[in-house]
Amino acid sequence: MIPTLEIERERTRLDAERENEREHWDGSAADGRVFRPGELDLSHKVILYLDDITVSFDGFRALNKLSLTIDAGELRCIIGPNGAGKTTMMDVITGKTRPDSGTAFFGQTIDLTRLTEPEIAHAGIGRKFQKPTIFEQHTAFENLELAMKADKRVRRTLFASLIDDERDRVAAVLRQIRLDQAADRPAGLLSHGQKQWLEIGMLLMQEPRLLLLDEPVAGMTDDETERTAELFTSLAGKHSLVVVEHDMAFVEALGGKVTVLCEGSVLAEGDLATVQADPRVIEVYLGR
Questions:
Q1: Can you give the chain as a three-state secondary structure string?
Q2: Which residues form the ABC transporter domain (predicted)?
């Protein structure tokens, strides 16, 4: 039998080794890759982890132990009744609201609860609100140009001329959002749907890994809605998308997994047909 004193010494030694490893961890993943501090680690193929997130406002629980994971490259739709916590969830992810408890990680190592809103945007999370925010007096091309120059990773001033590679990049995004034929048109003259696409393009100029999109097709025509679905499905894979939406036809067109929120937590999850057939979802949301 090993003496108790030796056991305690061994425990102390192991504890010291573990602490040393934590202090000197070089960011190596299990497969041998090395991640710099702040670099997105997707070695487990999951881009967003929310675990037991709780947020209260004046005694009202907007989020109640919410747990959710989003895979890298996934296109996820979030639905639910008003007051279900959808906006608060996005506020937590982007750093606008601090949770009372719980954890929120971007990849394996980036703790979102410790970062400011600008730091989270810089890390690779872009958010689009329902109402488009664009520079209406500038052309579509200039809006994308300004978005690129506002990216702190691009060490150029707002008054510097674009180099050829940057022009090519702006042109590529214009084609992607189907505004290449409106590149020189003032943004204020674009249709509502085109303004929405332009703001999405402005986010894409900053190369986000995760896009949060709040009711992106509200107010769009049927044709614009269809084109938006095509755009989002084309972005999935290279980007991860979380789409908050009430338009069930649009959700169906996107395909993929649907998460239903109710009273601040996940009520149901699965493909659209599965959640639409769930009696709980019918009672609190679809049946209204």
A1: CCCHHHHHHHHHHHHHHHHHHHHCCCCECCCCCECCCCCCCCCCCEEEEEEEEEEEECCEEEEEEEEEEEECCCEEEEECCCCCCHHHHHHHHHCCCCCCEEEEEECCCEEHHHCCHHHHHHHCEEEECCCCCCCCCCEHHHHHHHHHHHCCCCCCCCCCCCCHHHHHHHHHHHHHCCCHHHCCCEHHHCCHHHHHHHHHHHHHCCCCCEEEEECCCCCCCHHHHHHHHHHHHHHECCEEEEEECCCHHHHHHHCCCEEEEECCEEEEEECHHHHHCCHHHHHHHHCC
A2: 48-288
d(CA 105, CA 176): 29
- Sign (positive or negative) of CA dihedral 119, 125, 131, 134: positive
**Residue 152 CA from chain centroid, whole number:** 19
pLDDT computed for residue 97 by the predictor: 96
Cβ distance 228 to 193 under 8 Å? yes
> What local confidence, expressed as pLDDT, does residue 224 receive?
95
- Predicted local distance difference test score (pLDDT) of residue 138: 95
Q: pTM of the predicted model, to two decimals? A: 0.82
Which residues of the chain have a pLDDT value below 50? 1-4, 7, 10-11, 14-15, 17-35, 152-155, 157-159
Which domains are present in the chain? 44-124+208-288 (3.40.50.300), 134-207 (no CATH)
Kindly list the distances between the CA atom of residue 257 and the CA atoms of 30, 47, 252, in Å, as whole numbers in the listed order. Answer: 28, 15, 10
pLDDT at position 288, please?
55
Q: What is the pLDDT of residue 21?
A: 38
Residue 98 in tokens: 């601090």
